[in-house]
Amino acid sequence: MGYQFESPSLRHSFLAGAKELRDGVVAVKAAKAGSPDFVRGTSTELFLNYLGIQMESGKAEGMTFKINLSTPDNGEKFVLEMSNATLTTIAGYQAEDADLTVTIDRRELEDVMIGTATLSDKVSSGKAKMEGNPQVLAQLGSTMVMFDNWFEVLPGTKKREALPKPELFQDDATRYEGP
């Protein structure tokens, strides 16, 4: 069926499913999204939008807050707004009623994005400023999930590690033999 479809998306779906049925889910080496080169090449707005994708909306139910982010070295300003279990990035704007305002140079923010430093490290070293309620960052962090890039297209094709069989009865004296 995959060879007959003219639509690239349907063709790819069928051919990917056929390949998965033959070989299972095969993890190949790919570039890491958190690598230094990737982060330096990604715009701040795109990275903030990625946070909205990496967020599990079920964990964000009932959360509402606004975070202003300013990077003075390149003049960028953003608002991150959490409402209706959705994280929205607004570029070129600062909210007057923000719960937290973070000011950090882009090159310093890159260290945080890569994971070689934390925002609290940058604040304690004087390379960043936070004004307001820092708990909103903890709230945002609690909604983040790690993705499994090698998900199965067709259910049941991913190889699973064999789980040990549970020992229902430890000794023969308690074993039920039936009537």
General description of the model:
The chain is elongated. It contains 6 helices and 5 strands. Residues 167-179 have low confidence and may be disordered. The longest helix has 16 residues, at 8-23. A 5-stranded mixed sheet has the order 3-2-1-4-5. It has helices spanning 8-23, 36-41, 44-54, 106-114, 119-124, 135-142, and strands at residues 65-71, 76-83, 86-91, 100-104, 128-132. With 179 residues, it is α+β, with helices and mostly antiparallel strands. 10% of the residues are buried.
Question: Major sheet, described briefly?
Answer: 5 strands, mixed
- Number of helical runs? 6
Order of strands, widest sheet = 3-2-1-4-5
Shape: elongated
First and last CA, distance: 54 Å
Give unreliable regions as ranges.
Answer: 167-179
Structural class, by secondary structure, is: alpha+beta
How large, in whole angstroms, is the Cα Rg?
24 Å
User: Mean of the pLDDT scores?
Assistant: 84
Strand portion: 15-25%
Task: Classify the helix fraction into a percent range.
Answer: 25-40%
Total strands: the figure is 5
In terms of topology, how is this protein built?
Layout: H1 8-23, H2 36-41, H3 44-54, E1 65-71, E2 76-83, E3 86-91, E4 100-104, H4 106-114, H5 119-124, E5 128-132, H6 135-142
Parallel strand pairs: 1-4
Antiparallel strand pairs: 1-2, 2-3, 4-5
In short:
With 179 residues, this protein is α+β, with helices and mostly antiparallel strands. 31% of the residues lie in helices and 17% in strands. The chain has a 5-stranded mixed sheet.
